[in-house]
Amino acid sequence: MDGENRIILNVGGIRYETYKATLKKIPATRLSRLTEALANYDPVLNEYFFDRHPGVFAQVLNYYRTGKLHYPTNVCGPLFEEELEFWGLDSNQVEPCCWSTYSIHRDTQNTLAILDKLDIDSEKPSEEEIARIFGYEESYLAGELGPWQRIKPKVWALFDEPSSSPSAKMISGTSVFFICVSVLCFCLKTHPDLRVTEPYNILNFTINDTAVATLWHENEQPHVAFFYIELLCNVWFTIELLVRSVVAPNIIEFVKSPVNIIDFIATLSFYMDVVVELAVVRRKIDKSDILEFISIVKILRLFKLTRHSPGLKILVHTFKASAKELTLLVFFLVLGIVIFASLVYYAEKSQDNPDNQFKSIPLGLWWAIVTMTTVGYGDMAPKTYLGMFVGALCALAGVLTIALPVPVIVSNFSMFYSHTQVSY
Fold first, then answer.
1. Could you tell me if residue 376 is left (phi over 0), alpha (psi between -120 and 50 degrees) or otherwise beta?
2. Banded pLDDT at 1 (limits 50, 70, 90)
3. How many CA atoms lie within 13 A of 278 on its CB side?
């Protein structure tokens, strides 16, 4: 009777032996419906043959015996899922002890999907792929590409694909050079030693028709050399922006790109400054501080470097992938800041304290954020023992709050970077 109940399974050349009753424990699966009428049954050897992965099947058969499904660490996650699907089992039945190891492949697949969208592969796309990007695939296959259809992808590759040719690398290097020079000029022209003093206005005071004094209103302006350097840089930026907009595969996507919006505003702000300066010289209008504030956008040109640096692209997408962790971090920081600002305010009021710096809870918010982020300017500090105790708790809470999400962000960056290196 025991021999009649036993069944032999040959999986990938390895024979497994078990009882029919064991395979009936999990109904509606492939092994629970075995009959001798199946094509993979060998009546001579009295066994069922399956050309599947034997390592995974060992865990599958163990699941029938014990009711616990474990993940074999020597196989890839997608292969394990494929095998479970063949045997009719649910991958969600994996035991909790193996779930974290098993689910890593899903994060890896998401990472690879994101990296595919980054377009940081150094391999040159084929002509057919380029035609597909520009929507010329039918014309390309029919051999009916016009002159503009042939030139447009080449110009686009020069300005948007630095790895496509030596000329594209040269243009990319030129763009990076002008970005660095523009940002450097923006910073240096605020230095007092690099500014010149010019007379701005003359005021003549008279008393009883008698001239009393003549006052010169002086205005510090950047050296004129900075204007010509910025002019040269912005001429390049203008040409580059116009060319890229003309040869862009999708003009809507080009306009919606945050980097292109920053580039347009930064370039436009320079020409607005020129117009305002000319008006000021002619005494038509006063120079507005708002325009000077808008010129801060020029510093954001550094984000254009993401088009030329795969590392910066990885960093940006690391923050995107870690959005949940960053949101959680900000939420807990805000929560802690409000709580400890309120506590330190009432703690300092609870005792006689003539040097109390916490006159209100809003002032305590500044102290709480500086303390929780471990910056510690020292401009505000509790003076009472109860306030010091609250400050100690605030510092400890800040360290723990910041330390918890950081490993997740570092792990995401490491995973992005490692997969990028493999793709190269």
1. left
2. very low
3. 5
| Average pLDDT score, the chain | 80
**The pair of three-digit structure tokens given for residue 349, joined into one six-digit string:** 């009021």
Q: Give yes or no for a contact between 26 and 18, defined as CB atoms under 8 angstroms apart.
A: no
SS (H, E, C) 341-406: HHHHHHHHHCCCCCCCCCCCHHHHHHHHHHHHCCCCCCCCCCCCHHHHHHHHHHHHHHHHHHHCCH
Residue 5 vs residues 1, 21, 70: alpha-carbon distances, Å: 6, 7, 26
Q: How confident is the model at residue 146 (pLDDT cuts 50, 70, 90)?
A: confident
Give 48's strand partners.
Answer: 9, 41
User: What are 212-255's pLDDT values in tens digits?
Assistant: 455 444 556 778 888 899 899 999 999 999 999 988 888 888 88
* b/e code 37-72 from CB counts within 10 Å (16+ = b): eeeeeeeeeebbbbeebebbbebbbebbeeeebbbb
Residue 10: name the closest of 56, 44, 43, 41 by CA: 41
pTM equals: 0.62
CA distances from 251 to 16, 255, 301 (A): 62, 6, 20
Give the whole-angstrom CA distance, residue 278 versus residue 144.
52
Tokens at 341, concatenated: 């600002």
> Residue 270: how many CB atoms within 10 A of its CB?
20
Q: How far apart are CA 23 and CA 34, in angstroms?
A: 9
Side chain identity, residue 26: I
Q: What are the Cα distances from residue 313, in Å, to 116, 211, 259, 302?
A: 12, 66, 12, 12
